[in-house]
Design brief:
Among the domains are: 62 residues; 95 residues, Alpha-Beta Complex (Conserved hypothetical protein from pyrococcus furiosus pfu- 392566-001, ParB domain), CATH 3.90.1530; 48 residues, no CATH class. The N terminus is likely disordered. The protein is α/β, with parallel strands linked by helices and 332 residues long. The longest helix has 60 residues. The chain is rod-shaped, with a radius of gyration of 45 Å. The protein has 13 helices and 8 strands. The protein has a 5-stranded mixed sheet with strand order 1-5-3-4-2. Helix 7 crosses helix 8. Helix content is 58%, strand content 12%.
Length: 332
């Protein structure tokens, strides 16, 4: 090998070593740079998460208020039977308030309740019964909705799909809603669109307005006594049954605890017609052989005669007239 080739070969080897060394350095620097970028991005993400958590905590704290800041608007509270209230109280005593109360801001300060009146009452009672619940009454979770003139309507809709809301109360809500709507919107179709329930269900609920006043008075204290199905049946019975019978049937639901199906049967049962007063009188039958010729029925100040044919009636009538005429003449 020539000296030139030998020198060139050594030079090439040196250059190759430097190139490989530089490649290794650059590769090392690239990996290190990429790892640094990942760490930086991770730290930034953690910072953002910490900031979001702090913001959420602050938001949650802002959404908790004292029961004293919660106010009731007349007409928004739904009826709740005593046993249902006690069941709610036991649930909150054990688990606390799970679902926030729905409220709207109040111009005078605090919040008007849209949904959650009974939960607020329970918290206040629990705090009075046991000091350990006082903290709960000072930290009530709420959900704030925009305040506007539709607050009562929102309160109704907030409870409309509650499984325990009686049909009678749904009727009260719909009735109140219709008073605030123009006549053109008070139709089954429009109410169905507003409430999100079927036209058929709206129709059944609205039948409560056709019930006798005596039944509506009972439902004011016992809203679950009559459901929409029974209400419709009672309304249809009004045409053939006296209203007192309908009220009496619902009264048995309230006082005797009979089922709604049984109450309908009681209401639909027609009173047995009493026997005619003629049945208790002594009838006299005149026979011609085995056939009855005439039946005489004595009545107060009357005598009733029944014949098989009108010809016989005319014949006897003539004779009776002659006899009566003779008697009347003698008395003159």
């Amino acid at each position: 090998m020539s000296k030139f080739a030998d020198k060139f070969g050594k030079l090439s080897e040196g250059m190759q070593l430097r190139v490989e060394s530089e490649r290794g350095t650059r590769s090392s620097k690239t990996v290190s740079g990429q790892l640094g970028a990942v760490v930086t991005e991770r730290d930034a993400a953690l910072d953002r998460a910490d900031a979001a958590e702090a913001k959420l905590t602050a938001l949650q704290n802002a959404m908790r208020v004292s029961v004293d800041d919660l106010h009731e608007v007349k007409g928004r509270r739904r009826l709740l039977a005593r046993d249902e209230y006690e069941e709610l109280k036991d649930n909150i005593r054990q688990y606390g308030i799970i679902s926030p109360l729905t409220v709207e801001s109040r111009a005078e300060g605090g919040y008007n309740i849209i949904s959650g009146h009974h939960r607020k009452d329970v918290l206040r009672e629990l705090a009075e019964e046991n000091p350990k619940f006082a903290e709960w009454s000072e930290s009530v979770p709420i959900h704030i909705t925009e305040a506007d003139e539709r607050g009562d309507e929102k309160a109704f809709y907030a409870n409309l799909f509650h499984p325990s809301l009686p049909d009678y109360e749904k009727w009260l809500g719909l009735k109140k809603l219709t008073t605030s709507l123009p006549a053109s919107e008070v139709t089954l179709e429009q109410l169905s669109r507003r409430t999100g329930v079927s036209i058929a269900q709206v129709s059944r609920i609205m039948q409560f307005g056709e019930l006798p006043s005596g039944i509506l008075k009972l439902l004011g204290s016992y809203p679950k006594a009559v459901g929409s199905n029974l209400a419709g049946k009672l309304v249809r019975l009004k045409k053939s049954v006296q209203e007192e019978n309908l009220v009496a049937a619902v009264q048995q639901i309230v006082e005797a605890g009979i089922s709604q199906d049984s109450a309908y049967k009681v209401a639909a049962k027609r009173p047995q017609s009493s026997k005619s007063p003629l049945a208790s009188l002594n009838r006299i039958q005149f026979k011609n052989g085995k056939e009855i010729y005439c039946t005489l029925t004595p009545l107060p100040k009357q005598i009733r005669l029944e014949f098989k044919s009108d010809d016989e009636r005319i014949l006897i009538q003539q004779k009776i007239e002659a006899v009566i005429s003779e008697i009347a003449t003698k008395k003159v």
